[in-house]
Each structure stands twice: as structure tokens, then as C-alpha cells.
Amino acid sequence: MTEMKLPSAMAELRPALGEIVGLGLRQHAPYFSVLLSSKHGLTIEVNNREEQVTEHPPAAGTVLSAFDGATNFERAIGGFKREEIQTAARDFIKDISFQSYIPPAQSERRGDFVTPMQIDPLDLSIQEKLDRCREVQQRVKGQDARIVNVRVIYNELKRKAAFADRNADLAQRVQRVKMYLFVVVAGAAGDVRYDFHIKYGASGWEVLTWNDDEIQGVVDGALALLNAERIEPGEYRIISTPGVSGVICHESFGHGVETDMFLKERARAAHFIDKIVGSPLVNIADNPSQPGSYGSYFFDDEGQMATPTQIVENGVFRRGITDRYSAAALHIPRSANGRRQDYSRKTYARMSNTFFSPGSSTLDEMIAQVDYGIFLDKRISGVEDPQGWGIQVTCHYGHEIKGGKITERVLAPIGITGNVPDVLQSIIAVSNQLQMFGGSCGKGHKEVVPVALGGPHLLLTARLA
Amino acid sequence: MLIQIMEALRKRSDLVGWTVRHVQTRGAQVYAVPQGIESQRAVADERYLIDVLRNRTMADGSPAVGSGEASLLPGEDISRAIEQATLVAGLVANPVHSLPGPAQFPDVPLCDVDLQKDASAVMLEVMERIRAAAARYSEVRLSAAECFGEVCNAHLVNSRGIDAEQESTQIDIEMVLHSRKGDRESETFDERRRHRVADLDLEAAIEDRVHYTLDSLEAETPPLGRDQ
Q1: Among A156, A282, A331, B43, which is least packed, fewest CB within 10 Å?
Q2: Which of the residues A133, A264, A383 would you substitute to probe the B interface, choosing the one with the greatest number of B C-beta atoms within 10 Å?
Q3: What single-letter DSSP state applies at residue B34?
Q4: Percent of chain A with pLDDT over 90
């Protein structure tokens, strides 16, 4: 079993958290909690021209939170010095006149949780990780004479936390790893194209192995792009691969249902609870407890145990995802989505692993239904518009579908645009395979947290350009 | 801890230069939603930033230097951090350069005196000014606003003899304005960063953003085609 390995100062402070919560409650705070949080990260890049090892700026500190249903008062202190934190717990709320507030009843939550791993990144030196990246890069370099660069980027994130309130004594260590493989090729006319593949997980190094077929797939994808054509703008029948489905989900009923946006009157979905927003085949969920997925955790930054939330059920919008403040202000039940970038920032309602749930069709059946259309292979990015309900997704490339078969004709790049309900209403088949993809997500231009998105293949109609 | 880091760096014969910055910050954050003040936070942080230089050679054999950096929180392992920065510096080969030595710098005003005294009170006042300024325009609603004020003390020491301290303040504000006309809606986001509250010119900034928000409601898409 993988060890918790809390930083020593955090481990020493943890037994005193109950006493610190008591200090806050004695100052008449209706609700009081303590979060100890540490975040470290590392990026290693190896390409044909250089190697880089970059440590992400670490963040480690303590957050004392007092809440009266109207305002969240917090004191965030760098580090885990017991006396400093005890003094702060006594002093920082002593002059506040709290409103009368009875926090929702919560069950006892206790336990220590660690991401299951076979190869713990903490057991590997930076030199060993660098050597493993070099090894992957060397394997790919000689695959084709037209390859001009191979970039291997390794990324690891370590989050450790301990949380306590009147009913909770929790600790977790969440380990995330990710590896990008970019292959850059040059054609005879000097044109340069690239393709990529990314492996991820809330897991150890064991998910970062590459088989020959995966590597060949990236090389072939890049070479095929040398002959890619531009798509004729228009409305198409499309099949989205799980990554593209995931971006549609993330940008539509992901950002659009973060309930702090309801509170700020910045999300149209607030007016659509229990109303139809998509075809009956559409089911969307957010699940921070999904094993191994990049956005997973055991409890959120407000001590809420990770459980799934059904956002859209058979085409009907059921509920949004919450942090403590928005749930209290909107009088709706909590979900485990109160997340902060690090101890120095407040929590917001944020996604974890957000996805379309699988359906019952096979991919072959779906392709066979398309007389003419586009198979959207690979996502690049998306843009949310919670208020206007517009959607924009950019795909790296797609393949033409003709007569129920995927052809060799490649089209790139491809943008999807449309109105969220129109796009979701047009879904007529959903495949039976779920696949998740990891990444980072900001709130506006900041507050970056690790998330995953995904889904099955979807057969729908959308405007492409 | 700064002295311990400097002593550890001085013992390294494989480094041709080093810089350590001890950075301490303290500040206040205020967040508003249409219903009122959502959150008030006081935030403090302390860290040490280490940069090292190593001699390297270019691919053609000519001399080069490599640089590496590491961040260290109070109480963390100094030797591990220096080892990591040194490893990183060993992977990079850039044209030969050195670190700056002691010099005179112009005296630029970097501090908001009121913020230094009481960041929390100043940020609450800034938030109230934003809310009051937005409330003057009945056609526009302030959906959300965030105000951050921070005092940063940096102590820089390097292997060429610099030993200097600097205090500065920084204010970051964000706001979202929303307007509706019939079935058309527009939303405008704005962010600003200044050293001092006096440099923000808040009321003028909000007036400008209000006009932009309202103009967006009237905006039309340009006609397709080519101008003859």
C-alpha cells in the first residue's frame, strides 16, 4: 500500500486540529474548519534540442475558515506552525459579529486516503524520471525520416491535505501524473505538422508506459496531417471521439452548472432546473470519486466526501455542482466540488471528472449510420459561455465518413460552433465505451485546478468550420 | 534560514554564481457577489527562491553557462533544493553571462502606505468604491468583483555581493458587469493591477466598462463580403 507521506510539519500539526477547531467555535463562529494543504509539482521536457526540469512554485499552508451563512471569513497562513495557527484561530474572528446560522447536519467523516499506485513518483529521483523521458523520446525519434522533433513532457502534481471541522478528521494524498508525446514532421514542401497523445491518471508511473502501436499511431497521425485539407464550413453529421465529447460536456454542462455562477447570475442553466436541455440519450455526471481519473480526490477542500453528481439525466437538467457558499446561499444540497487552487486562494464550485455517461450503441453501429459526415478525432480546446450558451470546440483534425465508413481523407483543423441545447438535442446515438482525459481548468483566467473530462463517442449534428 | 541557504551555496564548488530571494507576503482578499460580501480573507506566505549558475559547454565546445532554480518553503530540505537546482542547471547551455553586482537604483514609489498599515481595511474600501460606482448606472449590474491587496517584502542576496531589501505593494481587482436589453445580454470582464490604490482611477475605469457593456448590446455583426 502506498504511504501517506505528509510533510513532517503537517503531520506534527494534524493531531492538534480538533483543538484548533474548538478555539474557533469558542469565538462563536457558527461553523469553523481547518485545512492543511500542500501542493508541489514538477515538469520535465525532453526534445531534440534541449532538456528542461522545472519545479512548479510550491504552495503549502493552513486555512482557517469561519462561516455564518452570509460571509466566509478566512485566514490563510503559510506553513504549519502550531503556535502561529492557534493564535490566529483565537484572534482572527474575535471582532466579527457573526449572523445567526445553523450549518447543515453532517455525518462523522474520518479516514486517511492515498491514491493507489504501483510506482510512486516520490520513490523516483529527478534523474530517474529524466532518464525515463529520454528513453521514450529515443524510441520515437527514429520511427520515420520525416520526423523533425519529438517532445516528451512529463508532469507530476502532488496534493496533500488534512481537514478538520466539528465532524471531520480527514487526510489525503492525491498523486497525479501526465505525459505528453508530440511528434513533429516536415513534408517535402517544407510544411510542418504535428500530432500528439497524452497519458494521464491519478496514479503512479505505471500509467505512463507506451506500446509500439500507440507510438506508431502518433507518428501516422502527424504524417497524415501533411495531406490534410480544410473543411468546407457547414452543418455536418459528426461522430465525436471521447476526448471531443468530453470538451463539449466540460464547456456546456460543466462550467455552466458551477453554482457560484448561478449566484452571480452568470449562468443560463440556473433557469433550466428540471427542464429538457438535450436528447433523452444525454446523461452528464461529475464524479470526483472515479478511480484513477486525473480529476479525482477523496474529499474536497471543504471536507465534503467525494461522491458522484448527476447533472443531466435522460436529457433533463437536474442540478449543478456546488461549493459550500453557493449551496448555502442557494439553499441546495452540497456536492463535493469546493476546490481551491492552493491554500492562498478561496474555494469556488469547480468540476472534477465531468463526462457524458456511456450509452448502448457500438462505435461500428454509429459509423454505419452516417452516409456522409466527419469523425472528429482529437480535441485541442474549448471555450465556455455559461450565460450565452454558445459553444466553441477546436479539434486538431477529423476524418471524412462516407457511405458508413471512415475514409483516409483528413480535414484539419476543425472548429465546432453552436448553441448548447441545439447541440445536445441533436445527439442520436451514444457509444458504450467511456474514456477519460486529464487536464487543467481555470475559472476565468486563473484558479487553475486539475480536472478530467470525457465520455463515449457521440453521434450528433453540428456546425463545423 | 536565509543564512543557512547562503552557507550551503558557498560550499558548492560546482556553482559559478547564485542568488537567493527571501520573499514574504501578506495581504487581504475581498470577494463580492450581487447579494453582498461573499468572502474576506487574510493571506500570508513566505518562501525562498534559489537560482544557481554552472559552467557548461556548447555543442561546438565553446563555453556556456546553465541556470537552475528551486523554491523552498520554511523548514524544507535545503540541500535537496540546491541539488535539484544544480541538476537543472547542468541540463542547460546558454551564452556566458554573469550575475549583477551591487549598484544604485532609482527610487521608484512602489508602496501604498495605507495598504502597508491595514490591507484588509483598504481592500474593503476599494470594494465598496467599486460597488458604489457600479450602482450609479441603473442599466448595468455588478455580477461579481474581487479585490486583492498584497504587501511583499523581498530580501535579495547573491554571490557577487548584492544584499538588498525592498518592500512593495500590489493591488489586483477584477469585476464582471452585466446588462440586458430585451433578449440581448452582454457581459464585460475587467482586471487591473497597480502598485497603489491611488493609481487605480476606479470610478473612471468603471464608467469606461459600463459604456463598453452597453455598447456591446447594440453591436451588430459586420456584413459578409468584400468592400468594393
Answers
A1: A331
A2: A264
A3: T
A4: 88
